[in-house]
Amino acid sequence: MTYSCLICQNQKLFKVYEQGSYRIMKCPNCGFGVLDPYPTIEQANTIYSPDYFDDKKSPDFIKDATRKYNYVNKHLQASSKILDFGGGVGDFVGVAKKGGYQLYAYDVSTYAMEHVHKTFNIPTYTPPLSVDLFSKSQFDAIVAFDVIEHLPNFREVLNFFYVWLTEKSEPKQSGKLFMTMPNIDSWDTKLMGKYSYGYKKIPQHINYFSPQSISIVAKEAGFTVDEIKLWGFERSLDFVFSKLKLERLRHITHQLGIANLTFYYPMHDMMVSLSKNND
């Protein structure tokens, strides 16, 4: 049972969603939402078996990765060293490799990292996770896309990121951290309430950040918040209708030859761009 906010320790949380034995409790003070009951690291890691990654090999996810790469690429210098933390089967790595970056990958899934190493021939790493896994100031940038909402030890991981990122005297050249995550205060969550898609990934998602709450923990870890912006995802009609179990509509799109038509849905996610504060 979670009795207090993990961000600001406020004890007056209220329920915003319930599914089976799980509840999502939200803090009215900082806006952070938390899954109750909250898993241990060991319990959370058991979710990511090989079949977890099956639909993540869809071309839709490559388009997602391309959109993320285009955003990150604008903020980095050529030949930067980038760690893809929690990168799964390597969608981002596959796109970023074309940009000439020095790439590294970490994931809790041995299956995913074996796939990435075999496919892209870059250094890959798996647990145990500690601050000594990488050297101090080893990376110019870290990307952690759709990751922090899964981590029971998110504060510790942010502290690791701070250590691993480069320290430079010029603020514009300091180490960069880019994260995407669901926004519990997004427009679609406010509009749809308990029917919001942002609440449906239980028990994979255990942390539900608002812009305010992610800003608090980022600053505590030593980062400057450069930008928090609305983000979304690319999905084909076939993917959407299959997930919604609308098989008749899915069949029609195949008949019409438009099943692979992709749309961008700027909904419940946010892109969080941070810089290492060297003060």
From TrEMBL:
InterPro entries: SAM-dependent_MTases_sf
Pfam families: Methyltransf_23
Gene3D superfamilies associated with the record: Vaccinia Virus protein VP39
SUPFAM superfamilies, per the entry: S-adenosyl-L-methionine-dependent methyltransferases
Protein name per Swiss-Prot or TrEMBL: Methyltransferase
Organism expressing this protein natively: candidate division WWE3 bacterium CG22_combo_CG10-13_8_21_14_all_39_12
Taxonomic classification: Bacteria, Katanobacteria
